[in-house]
Design a protein that fits this description.
The protein is α+β, with helices and mostly antiparallel strands. The chain is built from 19 helices and 22 strands. The longest helix is centred in the first third of the chain and has 20 residues, at 146-165.
Amino acid sequence: MSRRDGDVLPLTAAQREIWFAEQRSRTAIPGYRVGECLEIHGPVDPELFETALRRVVDEVDALHVTFVDDGEGPRQILRGSWDWAPAHLDLSGESAPRTAAMEWMERDLTRPLDLARDPLFGHALIRLSPTEFLWYLNYHHVVLDAISSSLVRQRVGDVYSALTEGVAVPPSPFGSLQDLVDSDTAYRASAAFTADRAYWTGRLADLPAPTRISAGSATDPHRALRLAEELELRSPEALRAAAGRAGVRWSRVVIAATALYAHRLSGTQDVVLAMPVTARRGADRDLMSVPGTISNVVPLRLTVRPDMRWSELLAQVAREVDAAVAHERYRSEDLLRDLGASGSIGTAFPLIVNIMAFNSRPDFAGHPASVHHFVSGSTTDLAVWVFDYRDGNPPLLRLHGAPEAYGDDDLAAHQQRLLALLDAVADCDPDEAVGRIDLLTAEEHRELAALGSGPVVAAPAASLPELFREHVRATPDLVALVCGDVSLTYAELDARANRLAHALIARGAAPERLVAVALPRSAELVVAILAVLKTGAAYVPVDPEYPGARIAHLLDDARPALVVTDSRSGDRLPDGGPGDRLVLDAPETAALVAACPEDDPMVAVDPGHPAYVIYTS
């Protein structure tokens, strides 16, 4: 079907989600402005390039739409043509032309677009030198998705090459936007839609807590993301060989490594990754050559345990990816609504792994081009992107992070650790327990080794409880603790800790034993920690705000003899977990502690006894 000026089409489901998000937002959403830069390694004829570019833009229906809400929901209106032109910039005279070009492109990406009036794309040809050119293209995600952009890139290279060589331009390979819309509409009314919905609502019925690597707090998935530089995978051939031995695609190895990394850093065994998909497979017609927006993000739910074999995790990932792809057209926004979950994909599934494989890099009359992708996407935690152009060069790894959760150094450290982990799994025994696979970089190993190579310091003559007793004797009336409305002197803090220490000793606390303390930040937390130390036991801090799976793993691993908590925090602890439980605000516990003496239990503490056991990220 040929495009006619004024044709009105409904939106695909993916477009509707983007359109509604833009309407709800008071400002433009950075993740929906997508930019790419192709570095063409050779001279470019600007006039022929513009001719090729205009021809390809004219072939793509999706680049000829504006959006309106006619009272019955949003619609897209096709235009016969646009009054537009690519920008031509000559920066060859700049002292740092590449830097100037990057700054110009980054500024352009912040330029607001009116969905009802503006062309939702832009292009520029930037001259750095007589033999170095950059082609910058940008678009709004409401009109093109990632696979569509790759189709446009490839087609412009093919048309430009034909024009330069003076041969016939191959016919357009693109299907119409009508094809994309009709297929999407048919799917949502089909039995396949119903079956996909049943699969996803069953798989995620007990929606787990979001899997997060960072302890930082980020709530807005539409903030501009922080970006790490692109780095080559160091052993791609070894990675592919390991995948071949396991009978899986190499991308599954990357996904499994990301899941393992998330498990090890978060402590959760119920790991959920978000995986972008084309949402074009299994359609009622071939949609792989139709530019437009229909892509989706699907959740991968994985169980990762420290004792699990690497081959077991890899096989599980392969099964989950195959199942997810088989049901990839059912939108995650619909799933969250089905489950009654609040928030968005970026908050429910904040850890993303996106493996983008392309057939090749575009070629411009014999001059190859390398592609740089500007930061994009929506997450409140971390996005792991891998780009593979299948051109003999190593795939590239890049990380995007929520700016509230990650600094530049954080992203760089995670990226180096992931590269090291990919090296490790490429060479590990398939029967190796995943909890034993090394996660540290070579530099981190050197830093750890250095920690143990310094001079040996003699143990202090007095233990912490003894030092505290001396301070109580010297300044009993000095304020020792202020927390909210609670203020305690050293004598008062000592008396409260002593009473609790006697109660803990009666329940089994003693040197060489562990006592978990699961309390919110409060005066009671300080009293409890001091009381545990007075018994000679080591305390294990447990933040009640941790994900349930992390708390369960922590307690199962530490196996404390006793758990000190309160009724509210206790509700966050797993039922039937290890250790006797002492609930401080329970009436019987309050009576027990009140009946205990205020004098110090005077437990002899050896400096060699452990004082605490802390599980870090």
